[in-house]
Amino acid sequence: MSKKALLVIDIQNDYFENGAWELVGSLEASLKARKMIDHFRSHNLPIAHIQHFAVQGNIPFFHEGTNGAEIHENVKPLEGEKLIKKNYPNSFRETDLLAYLKAEGVTEVVITGMMSHMCVDATTRAAKDFGFECTVISDACASRDQVLDGKTVPALEVHTAFLAALTFFYANVVTSEEYLSA
């Protein structure tokens, strides 16, 4: 029998308006993630909140001790919910996420968070490689414009391309409404 856990990846203040690395659609995505959190809480299913911290200035945001690194108020963990601190895009790297999921008997992870093209992507691929079935909630994730060879790729295209790539092998990708009505 399948047991699900929700991963809430890096929904932190720096990704919101006036933050150090604002994403497109971060507020809307956080509200969809909150709906997922409420659903998992109401069914007493495990939730892992994941919080990224920059290591020695390797990124221009999420510096420990700053407001920007704090988890956004829309998705704050409750007392007793798992909080995992990480320093790399892959939420499993040098954390206890895998051990936590195994201890909880989890076989499927439902993934929300930021950024679609970085930590959501890296964590989803790692989760699948560790044998978990993966579902990514597309409207509970956000991205930002990217630049390659002088060409700007709009955030929505980045978001769509990365999630579309995950559907080939790594994950089922659905909206929050599709997931919650299933």
TrEMBL record:
* Membrane-spanning ranges: none
Q: What name is this protein filed under? A: Isochorismatase family protein
UniProt cross-references to InterPro entries, sorted A to Z: Isochorismatase-like_dom, Isochorismatase-like_hydrls, Isochorismatase-like_sf
Q: Which residues form the Isochorismatase-like domain?
A: 5-176
Does the record bear NADP in its keywords? no
Listed GO MF terms: hydrolase activity
Q: Which PANTHER family match?
A: ISOCHORISMATASE HYDROLASE, PEROXYUREIDOACRYLATE/UREIDOACRYLATE AMIDOHYDROLASE-RELATED
Keywords on record: Hydrolase
Does Hydrolase count among this protein's keywords? yes
